[in-house]
Amino acid sequence: MSKIALVTGATSGIGEATAMIFAENGIDIIITGRRAERLNILKNKLQDKNVRVLTLCFDVRDEGEVKDALGNLPKDWEEIDYLVNNAGLAAGLSSVQDGDTDDWNRMIDTNVKGLLYVTRAVSPGMVERKKGHIINIGSIAGKEVYPNGNVYCATKHAVDAITKGMRIDMLPHNIKVTQICPGAVETEFSIVRFHGDDVRASKVYEGFDNLVAKDIADCIWFVVSRASHVNINDMVVMPTAQASGSIFHKK
Ligand code: NDP
Ligand code: 8X3
Predict the structure, then answer these.
(1) pLDDT of 114-145, one tens digit each?
(2) What is the whole-number distance in angstroms between the Cα of residue 192 and the centre of ligand 1?
(3) Is 152 designated active site?
């Protein structure tokens, strides 16, 4: 029987590329996000790879929606092998004294609480079956703090801590837990961060070779395709031209 992966935030960027690499490797795939139309378009592309695809449209911030979607999976989709907690965002880039509390709530609710709600719904099945692999998408922003990154960095530091905690909790149950921490990847991330200002967003990636979503999807595939006794705990992946959250070598 083929394995099953669930990727949150598959309507764009890293999640979409990850769904594709799973499909290319014969993994049946549950794709989630809030944009139903994009999920359907992606479903068609993934099915071309001859795998089964289930779309689930929900907001990870809404505990009820998460429970509803993941607590009522069709029988032949229940046994999830890989959970990729990818859905997330940055909103705004400003000092704490100038920060927008709506932005803060969006980031905390999505990046921290959303990841927890999804994991709470999926992990008991893994524990029961004594197998599974959870991959959390952290960030370089979860390893250090950069100017005006305050709350986004805090949410990714939380992902870092939650990942370590999960690994301890899952240890007796034979479940692998990995964190992948990318540097700058050009996706819709900066457009979302700057509230739709795509000119400002594109400037983030000017003057150096940024990562692309497939670079991170390749890393995710690497970690899930190791032998059963090997777990990659943590992976920090940067563009060659990026040394830290805020130090870039730009042409
Ligand atoms: P994108 O904006 O391209 O993709 C984000 C995805 O998250 C979308 O599919 C979006 O789907 C989903 N999402 C956002 N909010 C919610 C929500 N409330 N409920 C459900 N799904 C949601 O960005 P990336 O691909 O770059 O980001 C993916 C992850 O990678 C994030 O966790 C981000 O923090 C992290 N990351 C990104 C880096 C980068 O430089 N790009 C670097 C380090 C980490 P929809 O809008 O349809 O709901
Ligand atoms: C996303 C990339 O540069 O904002 O996590 O930390 S960055």
Answers:
(1) 999 999 999 999 999 999 999 999 999 999 99
(2) 9
(3) yes
